[in-house]
Amino acid sequence: MRLLQSNDDGSLSLTKFFEDDIPEYAILSHRWGAEEVTFRDLIDGTGKVNPGYGKIQFCGEQARRDGLKYFWVDTCCIDKSSSAELSEAINSIEWFTRGWTLPELIAPASVDFFCKDRVLLGNKFSLERHICEVTGIPASTLRGSPLSDFSVAERMSWAAGRETTCKEDKAYSLLGIFDVYMPLIYGEGKDRALTRLREGIVRASRKLVEIHKALGGDGSRRVVVLHGLGGIGKTQLSIAYAKQHKDNYSAIFWLNIEDEHSLKQSFTKLAKQISREHQSAIQVGNRDTNQNLDEVVKSVKAWLSLPSNTRWLMTYDNYDNPKLPGRTDPMAVDIRKFLPESYQGSIIITTRSSEVRIGHSIQIRKLVDVRDSLEILSTLSRREGLVTDPDAVKLAEELDGLPLALAEAGAYLG
User: Fold this and answer.
1) How far is residue 207's CA from residue 173's CA, in Å, rounded to a whole number?
2) Which of 192, 214, 226, 369 is deepest in the core (most CB within 10 A)?
C-alpha cells in the first residue's frame, strides 16, 4: 500500500510499503468533492491547484501533531486507473449518510471529527451517544466488539440509509463489515452486487464454521490447510477467522512462507513482536545473517512450545512451493522445519497446492459456471455479446474461474 508523508517544506510524498512493513498511520475519512487530488495529480505535481489539496495538507499536519509520520487518503493513495489495485484496496479497506464511511467509522480504534474550519469537534467516544442516534450502530460496536457478535441482518441495517455515488458501492462498501472477498464489477448494478455479496457471506460463513470446528479442541495442536488457486480468497478467509475468534487466542501471528528467506524474515519480525510484549522472552540480534536468522527461528519455536503457551494462532501464508516426496526443487520449502516442536497451538496454512498433507484440508473453490466468468469479462470490458463469442468463451475457460484474473482481464479488454 502507499502512504503519504508531509515534508518539512510543505510538500507531500508517497511511499510504498509491503504487508509486513506497514507503519502506523492516520486515515482521512471524508466525503468526496468535485475536484479531489488523485494519485496521478500527485505524481504529476499538479495537485496543489485542486480545492481538495487543503484537506490533505490538514490531515498531514494533524497526523504529525498526533505523533504519526504517515497518513492515508483514498483519493490519492490508490491508483484508480489500475482495476487490480482498486479491487485490492477496497477488499482490505479498513460519513453518516455515505456508504464508504461506515467501515471507516467502525474499524479504527480512534476517530477524531473536525469541521471544515479544522476545529476539533470530538471523537467517536465523546460523541458516542450522538453517533449511535444518527447511525443506529450500537455503542458496543464503536467500542470494538467483534462484528461477528451481530447478525447479518443487523449489520445490513447499519448501511440501509446510506448513499453511494456508484450504485454497486452499496454492496462493495460492506465487504469489510462481513469479511467477504469478491471481485469488483462496476456496471453490474446494485441488485446483482448485493446478490453476490449475500452469496459470499453464506460461503464464507460455512467455511469459517468448518475452520472453527477443525481448530477447536483442548489446546493440543490443530492444523487447517486452505488450498485453492491464487486470488480466490484464501488469505482473506484466514484473516476473517482470526478477526472473528481473536478473543479465543492469547496471541495471533502471521508468517509469509513464499520462500525460506521470506519465512525467516517473518520469524524475525515475530520475535521482535514477542520481545516487546514479553521482555527477555526472546533475544533478537542486529545481524541479518543466516546463522542469526536460524537462531531466531529456533528461539521463537521454543517460546511457542512452552507448556504454559498453548492458545496461540499461527498463519503460514503463501505456502505455494511446498517440499513434497519425489520432488527435487531446491527452492521448495519444508514447512515441518518451521513448526513448533510441541504439539500445541492452532495453525492455518494457505497454499495453491492440494498435496499438502498436514491437518484438516479445506478447498476454496473457483467459479464453476463459465457464464459467471463471461459476465465478469463482459461487465468490466463493457462489451456486449461475449456469451456467444467463441474467443471470449475460450478466454474464460483458460482463466479457469479465477475471480481476480477475470476482473483484470475484463478491465484490460475495456
Assistant:
1) 22
2) 226
* 113 DSSP 8-state letter: E
Cα distances (angstroms) measured from residue 326 to each of 171, 329, 332 = 47, 10, 12
Determine the Cα–Cα distance for residues 198 and 210; give it in Å rounded to an integer: 19
Beta-carbon contacts of 67 under 8 Å, excluding residues fewer than 6 positions away, are: none
Asked if residue 356 lies in contact with residue 340, where contact means CB atoms within 8 angstroms, the answer is no
Count CB-CB contacts under 10 A for residue 285. Answer: 13
**Contact (CB, 8 A) for 35 and 50:** yes
Return the closest-CA partner of residue 346 out of 238, 257, 219, 225. 219
Task: Give the model's pLDDT for residue 96.
Answer: 47
- Say if CB 37 and CB 53 are below 8 A apart: yes
Q: Which residues contact 408 (CB under 8 A, 6 or more apart)?
A: 83, 84
Q: What is the reported pTM?
A: 0.56
Predicted confidence band at 82 (pLDDT cuts at 50, 70, 90)? Answer: low
Question: Between residues 275 and 91, which one has the greater pLDDT?
Answer: 275
Q: Is 410 exposed, middle or buried (0-12, 13-18, 19+ CB in 10 A)?
A: buried
Full 3-state SS string of 191-210: HHHHHHHHHHHHHHHHHHHH
User: Distance (Å, rounded) from C-alpha 150 to C-alpha 157?
Assistant: 11
pLDDT at res. 232: 76
